[in-house]
Input
Amino acid sequence: MSVVDWPALKAAALEVQARAYVPYSNYRVGAALLTAGGEIVTGCNVENATFGATCCAERSAVFAAVAQGYRQFRAVAVATNGEDSGTPCGICRQVLAEFGSDLDVMCFTPEGAEAHYRLSELLPHAFKLK
Output
């Protein structure tokens, strides 16, 4: 497996983070997903007045990638606001795990916080039907 170009993933995540639709929380999140073939697919969070209809950036990126025909991913960079880099929520962790528990995850903020994980660290007992 080749090395992940984290600067390119971070740049893509920051670019899409700026397009997040967050009129309720003002908490912008952008995600850049790296496919097995080296393509980058992005997604941002989209809030809704009925909060259950809100979609996180990570899931937006996965759904866009699947819609484009991608099913294998290597890494994801997640840009959040604030001092702490945060991590994907539980639902996003489970959705990412559907496509492989060995994904590299980088969470970061424009302010400089950064953390690296394996998805299996963030979701050690993912639900699997396969």
User: Anything to note?
Assistant: The helical segments are 6-17, 57-67, 90-97, 119-122. The domain at 6-117 is CATH 3.40.140.10 (Cytidine Deaminase; domain 2). The chain has a mean pLDDT of 95.
